[in-house]
Specification:
- This protein has a domain of 255 residues.
- The protein contains 16 helices and no strands.
- The protein starts with 11 loop residues before the first helix and ends in a 7-residue tail after the last helix.
Amino acid sequence: MSTSKTPTARLLHVDGLKAAAAQLIVLHHLSAYGPVAEAMQALLPQLMAWAYQYGRMAVQVFLVVGGFLSARALSSRGQLLEGAVPELLWRRYQRLALPFMAAVLLTLCCSALVARWLPELVPFHVSLAQLLAHLTLSHGVLGYEALTVGAWYVAIDFQLFAVLLGLLWFSRGLALPRGWRRVLGPALVALLMAASLLFFNRQSGLDNWAPYFFGAYGLGALVHWLGLVGPQRRLGVLLLTALGLVALLLEFRERIALALATALLLAWLQQRHAEQRAPLSPAAARPWLAHLGTHSYALFLVHFPICLLCNALLERHDLSQPASGLLAFVGAWGLSNLAALPFHRWIEAPAGRLRLGALLMRLWPRTLRA
């Protein structure tokens, strides 16, 4: 199997978290939609009930890991933000949106094929405005029905990155000593994270906007920065834990509990990785972790059209036996993982290599280029 980096050059514990979250999301959607879900609920009711109820919370793992990786990319050694804001924002957009739109079009093609048998799982009508809203990742805030599962997460991920980038850019531009500005960026992230955990995340009407989710995202970002401060790291982790517990005492939310647990696990794994006391995974597992982590976004995007096809096959041939449902379930899961391979190679990876920022930089205001 090929990966963009050798296993030894990667953060394999981060790959493991991403891989586990992606597989749980697939399990959740297979337990939620169509005749495959119905057959599996009859065969394994407790497992499917758990997958339906808790599998979707795996997005909290994505949020924490996303915050960690974004902070690491923008401030790898705790330095001030480097690079031009519009180019960084555009690069993030194309890495998210271009594969996402390819997945949307693939889902629409599969929807057209299965509409006869699964009318409840496909959109009744698709407008140009709806497609443009998805292209600009504004479908949620504009109130358009999502054309594929997980569409809300892609839009929120871009919003969260833009907010993090904006906070670091703001701190970089202040007329303060360099050392102060380096600290101010993470401090602003911590303030917004606290506001999200204590207030914004308790307002369900804000769930199409970044502040609602910034608590989990900020936890991940701060885990990165705390890993750079040496002796103060332990105190910082304790303060994060205390803040998370206060938020849970104020209003217990399982999603926040999972985000906090993920952040603490990530902090512990990062410390072990930095100390290199022991390998974090068996040698035989490392290529697989790198592979699954690399393809986690592709799997997240491409699994739903595969699930549609497997559900339609079950419905078309009236395969109502539990064994048929189990076969369709395992087949959908396996084919989704296989489909992620060409999707990553031919769509996601090339989208990440495109260099369209030069033209954008010529058109952007000079004040944001520094």
